[in-house]
Amino acid sequence: MTVPAARRAGRWTTSIAIGVLASALALSAVTAASAADPETRLKDTAPFRVGVAIDQRETSGDPGRVVTEHFDQVTAENHMKPDAWYDGQRTLRIHPQAAAIVDFADERGLDVYGHTLVWHNQTPAWFFQTASGQPLSTSDADRSILRERMRTHIFGVARLLSERDGLFGAGNPLTAFDVVNEVISDGPEADGLRRSEWYRVLGEEFIDLAFRYADEAFNETYAAPDTDRPVVLFINDYSTEWDAKRARYLALVDRLLARGVPVDGVGHQFHVSMSLNVAALARAIDAFADRPVTQAVTEFDVPTGTPVTTAALDAQGAYYRAAFEVFHARKDHLYSVSVWGLNDSRSWRAADGAPLMFFDDLTAKPALVGALAAAPAPAVAVAASSRCVGGRVVLVVTSTNLADAAKTLQTSSAFGGRDFSDVASGRSVAHALSTRAVSIPAGGVTVTAEGGATVSALYPAVTCSAAAPR
Ligand code: G3I
Questions:
Q1: CATH topology assigned to domain 5-373
Q2: Domain ranges, ordered by start, for the chain
Q3: Which ligand 1 atom sits nearest the alpha carbon of residue 81?
Q4: pTM of the predicted model, to two decimals?
């Protein structure tokens, strides 16, 4: 399937930030992200969006800085859930914390992954009650009431978000939403579905309706003209790493697809333990790989157990590395990989032992180092240098094909670029770019190898004096 182009702001500026350090040392700087470089940002090592669940506390100060440095997507941990959209008078409005998160994402160029439109939990009780407070029955009249409440809620959320930041697909940071969350049963019910209030009143139909309403609201009514379904619609669940639950999940997704329900993506929460072999994570993603959906790791966390020892933190680092290696190997199937919180004490699993990638002082844990180290070495390298020729600045760009096979290499910069076809494995190609300027600010050059690997290099600011060498 085609996933709408993401707002990828932030990647380039980060490459520059890495390069600034290197350029202080030399005129040419190879800035491919590497785990050995403590300045490396997780989002620069990943071929999928890297997300983090936050609330307003992570939208400013040092937490806001770390979120912006390492992540290119945020999820509201609690404040876009159904009950968060209503005040005490049942009036729909955007929760101040959700507003802060959306504003933060918009300012910093991050994507917002919405969580969640329809859930059995954190949903106002009145959704499922008559005006007199009695439980809705399964009569046609009561079923209509619940369908209409769902539709009104979903359209209301889409309207509020689009009023705030523009139509979807035209600058609005929201690019994906968990439409239904945790609808699969933990027990062996015949149809594999959780017995929630949604299910009691509407049966399986509620899942179809949620996606159809969400598609109409986010991808038609409040989508910018000439956009192609700009908000990716996900189903999301936990324990998909376990075979029996995954079989029920897969069966539901197949039924939805067979009925033409507009489900775009399958989410795996992956609240896992270090005792789980990461092969189970691979099996979960692989199970959906031939279905016409993208996938996401939506809520990853891995506690160390208690007490939290140095050895446990190191083992956790190894686990994060192995898990991210699984994710990298499946990059073509992954829309995003998100962790469920920034620093350990903010996690819903804090009591199980330090589950996240940052200590509470926001320094990197071995878990972050492990996630960084999982990135495969880029199959291409680039170096850029600037010099003065005839009093004008010329950039010299050298690209090297590090892949096993011949590749086309494509360079680009503010002053143009060039394509080199059929560059043999291990070979370098160089070209000069005339800027026609006597002075240029620091900037960057990227090279993309056929098949996807992209790396960047920084060149420093340079000013040619009248006596510049020719
Ligand atoms: O905001 C109130 C606060 O005013 C009050 O003083 C405090 C007292 O306990 O509670 C606060 O609300 C808590 C809220 O988190 C914010 O911290 C709720 O009690 C607590 O139930 C709620 O837990 C959230 C949980 O979902 C609710 O189901 C967790 O933070 C959140 O991480 C968790 O997220 C879920 C995903 O949505 C779905 N997948 C599983 C995941 C983990 O359970």
A1: TIM Barrel (3.20.20)
A2: 5-373, 380-463
A3: 37
A4: 0.82
